[in-house]
User: Fold these one by one.
Assistant:
Number 1:
Amino acid sequence: MRYYCYNEYDPDSPLADQTGGYVVTKSEAEIRSEYYPYWLKKMYEKFGKTYVDANYCFEDCLDDWIVVNWAWESKE
């Protein structure tokens, strides 16, 4: 299982440091269950179901999620 991290900002969070930031870690499974259905729906709307099913997979979604969140793969 791969894990990915990104910076979050919420000064009211108990996890926040002095700047209000903290690092969130998500598993590949969490990304698949939380983001993939949304991503797939948007791709279907833009390109059509037949084209998307033939040309895209979860790895493409994961790549987009990484870019959108400025995330990095956790090595720990």
Note: DSSP finds four helices and three strands in the chain.
Number 2:
Amino acid sequence: MVKFYAEYTDTFGGEANYSWVKRSNFEIRDNASMRSVLQRARKELGLTGAKGKIIGDFGDEYHWKPRNCCTILMVRVEI
């Protein structure tokens, strides 16, 4: 199992603003795909069913942006 840390926050000028933030920790199987990790993070933070796109894949961190919202979801491997 791999531990992940997720943050969902608002943006200002396209960058994370942190005027409010929701956080979650979760575990998922070792060989999980990026899609599975983001799906689980969205479930943990109440974003199930929201449409959006992946805007960053940095190997151990993923960024996802919902459509028509000034928010961002960042998920990273917890060390």
Note: The longest helix spans residues 34-44.
Number 3:
Amino acid sequence: MRRAVLLVCGVLLVADAAAAAGLDWEVTERADAPVPVQAARNVRDGLLGLGDAFFDANTAVFGCFALGASQLFIGAADGVGLVDDNPLTQHVSKGVLSKNLAKIAYLWHLAGAESLLGSHGLEVERWASSEVAELNPLLSDEDVAELEGPLPLDPLAFVGEATFHTDAYRPHAPFVDLGAVLLVDGALLPAASLLRIAQLRAPADALDERATSLFRSALELGW
């Protein structure tokens, strides 16, 4: 509940700045347009929504596999590190191979995190959370971590001094995200688009919001 309140405050704080800067895909349209124009917009938005669900699904699925690849690479890095970065060999090899494997693991992690958080309109919420963390000095480190969410991890989780980088093995459950993608992008969002085409805009908007909320919850549950 506290996170929701903080997030709402963040959205309100950055709304004016976001409106001034604008997003590349946003278009300002008159709210009081004639009924035939609104009907045409609903059909247009419904058709575009079907395509948007397809692309969001692809982005999210890539994110799931990228996070899986990240954990494979950090596992390889820690395994190799036992050979080239132990107290004896680190003065000779300086952990060159394990270090670079860990860097690749972080790059895969970052790509996966950005893909998941950049889908389904969640990028705007991330910006709002970041603004709240910067504008409110009274927030504790725990509050900031809760507000910003589990992704992405700090780079030091992958390359910090440690034998095993346990934070990078956080129990991500990709099947949770994949299940959410199947439900959200395969059923809920297409259904919302069809409702919008049928001129049922209010139920369509409510279903859109429900689908986004479900996907957000799946991301939190997967970590």
Note: Residues 14-20 have pLDDT under 50 and may be disordered.
Number 4:
Amino acid sequence: MAELLDDALLPTDRDGLEAQIADIDRRLQENLESIRALMAAEKPGEGVFLASEIHEAKQLSMLLRYQKDVRTVRLNALLQNGDI
């Protein structure tokens, strides 16, 4: 599985959070393309099933969305409080 960012070491500055959010967005897009490719590669009539690979990719997608949400909430809180 791809290496995930450490939620315990969130940046406390706007630039750092925005950079991580952008990186996660890029990784989400790549993962979505991977899921589509895996689904297209399945050939049930020929006995080619990629369920475990698709499941793993979807799990990664959920983890990345969670990481993005954590960083977005942190960024919004800092902006709202005027801390940055």
Note: The first helix runs from residue 14 to 41.
